[in-house]
Amino acid sequence: ILSRSKPALPSKNDSADSSKRNTSLKTNMQIEDYLKKRDYTGAITLLEFKQHNDQIENVELWVAYCAFHRGDYKKALHIYQQLYKANPELDNLAVNIACCYFYLGMYEESKEFLQNVPSSGLKIRLNFHLSHKLRDEATLMEYHQQLQDVLEDQLSLAAIHYLRAHYQEAIDIYKRLLLQNRENIALNVYVALCYYKLDYYDVSQEVLGLYLNHYPDSVIATNLKACNTFRLYNGATAENEIRSIIDQSANAGFGYDLVKHNLVVFRDGEGAMQVFPSLVDVVPEARLNLVIHFLKNNDTKEAYDLLKDLQPAVPQEYILKGVVNAALGQDLNSPEHIKNAEECFHLVGSSASECDTIHGRQCMAAAFFLAGQFEEVLVYLTSIKSYLHSDDTFNFNFAQSKTACNQFKEAEETFLLIQDPKIKNDYIYISNLARCYVMNKKPQQAWELYLKTENSPDSFNLLLLIANDCYRMGEFWYAAKAFDMLDKLEPNPEFWEGKRGAIVGVFQGVVAKKFPVDMLGDVLQLLRSSTSNQAEQIAKVIRKWAKEQRLSIT
């Protein structure tokens, strides 16, 4: 994000003997070798050893520089602060301290320290980034106007575009800079990061290869390659990619938190509670992934508490906040949370950058789903069906919307594609599938669904749904059975009336030769178990008709 120069190493003792000068020159060359290899740990070890022999001047500046680039910002800050107390006029010392504060997430401290720093390109760039971090749009635009058409300033501008999810704008800047100087091959990593964020994982992988061919041991590039592999294939393959840099990042310090975080993701959340909590607000995705972990474990309240104070800035944050509010709203039957979720989804789905992406259309579908506008839901889900045809969650939402729009045949087919046991055991799934069976003239399959869930807490509601839907569709025999069971479970005049009407419907169907005569025997059995006085009267009418038709029923 920030561009800075190496600390100068001016000689303070021109009268030193030639032997000492040669030793110092040799040491400087050794340090340069370490820096070219990006071995900052080795450089620090050499510097601290030489420090005891007084073989290098301004050694603290070198150690601080290496510590900063190694990712040990606390150590760098401590050294710079000690030097600042001794000599506050030392060139670039104050702005270096501000940079350390920035990388430690101490944005207010960084901003305050910069106030006394002389004007420079680095100060402008750092203030530019601080304005973004502190969500100060006015000063962000002010410092934006001060940026020049030079490499460092343009890199800062591209970085802000990236952080604000303006990935194509960032790519345009990086590609222009690459055209100006092809030797800046690290820019390919930034381009690859942008393509990763745009879901172009194969393109990202191809661009990334241009850098990895020169620096195969790069922690950041190898980590990104593993992330692309995870998206393109699976977690196990991604873990194999990242394995080569686990020890390297642990020893170097730089990037270790990122690698540790991604290993949990690749392992499908294994060890999440041991890793994610300590990385919240250190690795940006750690908070979001911890929320996802809580959601997967049905701990909606913990997920909500993690996100309630977060002001979303990028689509992923809006989406996750929407999901959490939707889940909590359904758990608590809270219209306020549902409304918040609807707004989050609508903001993402209607944004220019996301409206034509898969996630964007899913968000619009979710917003309309929560609003009960299922015809609109189907418009958006149908447009992305070919990409998600084997996704159980997608099919669950698609089938529910089909059911709500009375497209029961397609809804049944979609419900039956789902394999996830958790979804298939959900009452929403079972009840909607039962309704589809009844509406598609398959009441027996709906009844079998009830029998499988007879001992569950929701069995009574399912029975009531089957009874009413079967009655409405003229499937009177199963309606009669369902109302009979309801009346036994919870005696209620309404259940008897439903049972009575369904039995009469069966009788009418037999008379009209729509149902087999054998059903009358089963109907009489249901009437015998009834306590209403009307039951015997109906039974007499049925027996009389059967006698007139010379039919034998029991």
Automatic annotation (TrEMBL):
This protein's record includes keyword Repeat: yes
A Pfam family matched in the record: ANAPC3
Residues of the signal peptide: none
Domain of life: Eukaryota
UniProt organism field: Exocentrus adspersus
Keywords linked to the UniProt accession: Cell projection, Repeat, TPR repeat
The protein's name in its UniProt record: Intraflagellar transport protein 56
Region (Disordered): 1-22
Subcellular location: Cell projection, Cilium
Family annotation (Gene3D superfamilies): Tetratricopeptide repeat domain (1.25.40.10)
GO biological process: intraciliary anterograde transport; intraciliary transport involved in cilium assembly
Family the entry assigns: Belongs to the IFT56 family.
Major place of residence: other
InterPro entries registered for this protein in UniProt: TPR-like_helical_dom_sf, TTC26
PANTHER family listed in its UniProt record: INTRAFLAGELLAR TRANSPORT PROTEIN 56 (PTHR14781)
Any one cellular-component term (Gene Ontology): ciliary basal body
GO molecular function: intraciliary transport particle B binding
